[in-house]
Amino acid sequence: MTLYSDVNTIWVLLGAAMVFFMQAGFAACEAGFTRAKNAGSVLLKNLMDLSVGSPIYWLFGFGVMFGAGSGFFGTFDPGIRGDYSSILPAGVPLWAFAIFQTVFCATAATIVSGAVAERTKFSGYLLYSLAIALLIYPITGHWIWGGGWLSSAGFHDFAGSTAVHMVGGVCAVVGASVIGPRYGKYDKNGKPRAILGHNLTLAALGVFILWFAWFGFNGCSTVGMDSDELVETAGLVFFNTNLSPALASCAALVLTWFRYGKPDVSMTYNAALAGLVGITAGCDAVAPIGAAAIGLVSGVLVVFSVEFIDKILKIDDPVGAVSVHGVCGAVGTLFVGLLSVNEDVGLGLFYGGGFHLLAIQAVGIISVSIYVGIVAAIVFLTIKHTVGLRASKEEELAGLDPSELGLPTAYSGFSMQPHTIDDDSLSAPVAVVGEAPVAEAIPVMREPVFRKEGVPKMTKIEIVCKEARFELLKAKLTEIGVTGMTVSHVLGCGVQKGKPEYYRGVQVEVNLLPKIQVDVVVSKVPVSDVIEAAKKALYTGHIGDGKIFVYDVENVVKVRTGEEGWDALQDSI
Prior knowledge:
Layout lengths: L5 H28 L5 H28 L11 H4 L12 H22 L6 H24 L3 H5 L7 H19 L20 H20 L8 H33 L4 H16 L7 H25 L8 H19 L16 H29 L8 H6 L1 H6 L17 H4 L32 E7 L4 H10 L6 E7 L9 E2 L2 E2 L5 E10 L4 H12 L8 E6 L12 H4 L5
Antiparallel strand pairs: 1-5, 1-6, 2-5, 3-4
Helix pairs in contact: 1-2, 1-4, 1-8, 2-4, 2-5, 4-5, 4-7, 5-7, 5-13, 7-12, 7-13, 8-9, 8-10, 9-10, 9-11, 10-11, 10-12, 11-12, 12-13, 17-18
């Protein structure tokens, strides 16, 4: 037999890698649920949670959390500073276990970033991220996993509903309260306004990454696979870890469909995370029926919690971190005391175990919340009154990407950003592409030719419609002789008296919808024919069929030849 059990070490290192990948999930999810002008800021802050937390946890946190008699600098030199053999899983080397715990610490810190997104100074963010890794997570982690008083009392939190997620959720609610809401989030009467995230696709990808990585978060928390019992436990953990978020998503889908008239996509994705958080404490202790119950409750609870925090408490949490991690983390931990079927953990109330385990779980939730809440408040208030916690109003309105990071946009390849041109290129000769060289081009006439007697009038027709109807529109226009057009993607809204739309439980006041704008200029083709063709192609009888605008055109100049007016249109219309 080797010094270390190979299978246990590999299992723990696999878990560490998968939990590390959760940082990518959180970064994508939070960036997608916030506005494009802050995407770079969100991404950088998620990187720095891990980058700041890792050395702090190495130098201080691990030694404090696992209390090996070494105190601070407990892991700096394990051969001299402390004996960790009593807390290491069977056959797992120190550094394998240390990196596994490090990425858990980084997860707790990164939860906060979504709740305070879009208005937090970068310097202030770095300081409170450091404080979580130094002063908060290692202390409560010691109580729960490091042989502390909650562990001794029988408190059960298998993979961190409380130790990781509720800790992050409590820090998030304190931070969001201290920093205040984003400008424009609430009107003068305190009514919340919907601020839509800019990229739901990115947010969805983040949730799927998190769901995948959660199998490592929960499953590899067995910290071993060298016995039949551990293999069986891991199988149950994996099954429950998938079942709970699946049921949570279904519950939120049905609930939001009923409450808002349509399913809420972002809330349903939040519910998946809520189900994952809820099952994390008891994934090894509850039966699948218990995991299903936890998922259903988490999916319903997260919807009402997001609304309550936003509308009643008026705490601005752009991504729902407080509800997902704080509220559902606490409830999931409490459910262990109700639904546990594991005799080693203790039977839950619904399985004849009485109130003993339920009481221990409740005490753990309350004590951790109090400690984390007090320390987080001290940390955030100290930062607020020293280096500053919140960006200025001007910086926030402009976006943290350009104001704090000097980043014009995180999507430069996908937006209309002007390219920088040096002075030499401005005076460079311009290449002419086409059949007519500049020297032979027809001179530009100063007087518009359409004003001459007998020259047809030119008219521009601008059509705004749904992209799905474009092919039919193009076919109809071609039939009447219109073959030249300009097509643009646009966003727009109109004032309609109809059913209101909701985003995360808040009515959307101005709903910008993606449309296309088709521009044609005609002279010989009658304008009325174009309008009738467009109406036939676009009409469905529903709101949003589109609009047609008609303008007089003073002149048209063909750049290649210099022709004007009616003549300039002849090879395209």
